[in-house]
């Protein structure tokens, strides 16, 4: 928060409020995700989806060629 010009006392008050809200809901505030965490997760998910799509496309192509060979 210092990077955006928030005073240390105000930053501590915000962090304390978040901590208290998390405790009130029974959430461990030390494991909350940041925007950077979510961006990293999104990139990893996209890589997995693209990989799975390519694998399925490859399997389908191989299956079509195998069926065509059986028909001839």
Describe it.
- The protein is built from 2 helices and no strands.
- The mean pLDDT is 90.
- With 72 residues, it is mostly helical.
- The chain has 2 domains: 1-32; 33-72.
- 75% of the residues lie in helices and 0% in strands.
- Please provide the ordered H/E string of secondary-structure elements: HH
Q: Tell me the span between the first and last alpha carbons.
A: 69 Å
- What is the count of structural domains? 2
Q: Overall pLDDT, averaged?
A: 90
**Assembly category:** single chain
Provide a count of the helices: 2
Provide the gyration radius in Å: 25 Å
Structural class: mainly alpha
Low-confidence stretches: none
| Overall form | rod-shaped
Largest beta-sheet characterization: none
The share of residues in helices is over 70%
Strand content bin = under 5%
Annotation, overall tally of beta strands: 0
Keywords:
single chain, 72 residues, mainly alpha, 2 domains, 75% helix, rod-shaped
Reconstruct the topology from this structure.
Elements: H1 8-24, H2 35-71
């Amino acid at each position: 928060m210092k990077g955006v010009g928030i005073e240390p006392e105000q930053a501590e008050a915000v962090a304390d409020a978040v901590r208290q809200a998390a405790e009130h809901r029974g959430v461990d505030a030390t494991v909350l995700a940041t925007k950077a965490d979510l961006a990293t997760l999104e990139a990893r998910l996209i890589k997995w989806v693209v990989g799975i799509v390519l694998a399925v496309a490859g399997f389908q192509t191989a299956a079509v060629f195998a069926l065509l060979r059986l028909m001839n």
